């Protein structure tokens, strides 16, 4: 999703801007651009290709400057074409006075566009961003900082913007409301960016702007005012941001690498866990866990499915009521709040706009006990929640989440055990046994990864299909959902998941010889029921692809393909089964030749609603 970098310096800033864009590439984008102040004029370069192409374009044009802004765009308003790419100019010609980049969505853009058109502004893009750019130009009063403070009052919606002006060569002004933005402080130079990672290697002195903040960046100052125009001091943090995408090593794609990293990152996520204690979730967790009598999980995408899995664990082991809600639904629906709720957000990035908004919504309803399971310790989600468990998946580059999911599950299982302990539902023996199983997870996952050759053989069949069904029961139903999501995201095969018991209530009508039906069949109490569902599929000619456990008595036969997972893993079984489904999606996509790490239309970090 959109990324912003901006700089004011006394050196050519182009390499910092381009490097920043490269570090933001992981979010997903479809065009990119840079604008610089060059000899009293605004100049820019934009591309609908990758940042490396933009870099050579900039090199060919010898574009250099001391002040500039840059952007990666993930299209919302208007197609991903060059004239919609940021930075936008106003006026949009040689005489450009204002340059602006934006992340977010301006909801009143139609109204503002009409107003600006009536004033004679000519629009050359379909974006809501161009509206802000012309608005700033229209309101410009000789002081860009003051102008932007006035202009943002006219905007409804979410934005992070960075803007500079021909008349004020050593100044970049930036503002945020609903979209992330940070300030990076240097020696006689200052920066702004969507996240600290974009500035890794340039500065680690970071200020996280708060909602409504507007910042005036000059060579020797970064002056911040809040939404009411009052000067504010925000804490400067030393942030050791990851230096971006790790090397691919022997892997073809980041997704493949990330799937194979899972034994290690699960180990990292559990490192230091010597026993179950509320302290794992931060200071004050013990009191909070004692007060709460129910859990509300809020998340999006893959993180939502980890929440769904946790519901089965929390209700069965801790005996605590647990609801799981899709953040974008929860934030807008009327719900019945309960003050003794532990609100748990789950997020890989910690910046997902809907999840952040759902968290704020829950708080506004009086639910103040908040905890996040998050992969980025410096993210807005961690800053907003009172308690946190940081998963240690490391930087996840593949848009389709893999290792973030399994580390979330590991963290959520720890939460389950902790809630169980607080509620006297966890005997010391059970605690020791569960912890032993958790510590063995890296080995158990490695054994699932060793099934890759068998899964590759299935992937060849799947690559020729256009539809697939995934079935699971109980806590493996969310895993079926995640398997279907992985397949559709990266191979573009239409895939749906159902709780196997629902098969006869609709999806069975789709089953023909052309329909592969992936079944997650661990050797648990529901296995016999599941076998009946499988019969229903076979009786209609459907092709079954079954992930069974080592000890389940299901054998391959006509139309029935079976891969056995090496161990039956009880409550933690979803963590193993999902790894097999990740490999199936990956190899199917590979066989279809799609862009596995950057699937079409999708973004890694979804910072707009
Ligand atoms: C996007 C990503 C998914 C992710 C979802 C939620 O859709 O492509 O992989 O699950 O956002 O993101 P979060 O960072 O909040 O987990």
TrEMBL record:
Residue span, Glutamine amidotransferase type-2 domain: 2-220
Active site: 2, 604
Single GO molecular function: carbohydrate derivative binding
Pfam families hit by this protein: GATase_6, SIS
Keywords: Aminotransferase, Cytoplasm, Glutamine amidotransferase, Repeat, Transferase
InterPro entries: GATase_2_dom (IPR017932), GFAT (IPR005855), GFAT_N (IPR047084), GlmS/AgaS_SIS (IPR035466), GlmS/FrlB_SIS (IPR035490), Ntn_hydrolases_N (IPR029055), SIS_dom (IPR001347), SIS_dom_sf (IPR046348)
Major location (coarse): cytoplasm
Domain SIS: 285-425, 458-599
Domain of life of the organism encoding this protein: Bacteria
GO cellular component terms, A-Z: cytosol
Gene Ontology biological process terms from the UniProt entry: amino sugar biosynthetic process; carbohydrate metabolic process; fructose 6-phosphate metabolic process; protein N-linked glycosylation; UDP-N-acetylglucosamine metabolic process
Documented EC number(s): 2.6.1.16
Location(s) in or outside the cell: Cytoplasm
Catalytic activities: D-fructose 6-phosphate + L-glutamine = D-glucosamine 6-phosphate + L-glutamate
Biological role stated in the UniProt entry: Catalyzes the first step in hexosamine metabolism, converting fructose-6P into glucosamine-6P using glutamine as a nitrogen source.
Known partners and oligomeric status: Homodimer.
NCBIfam families for the chain: glmS (TIGR01135), PRK00331.1 (NF001484)
Protein name: Glutamine--fructose-6-phosphate aminotransferase [isomerizing]
Lineage: Bacteria, Pseudomonadati, Pseudomonadota, Betaproteobacteria, Burkholderiales
Name of the gene encoding the protein in the UniProt record: glmS
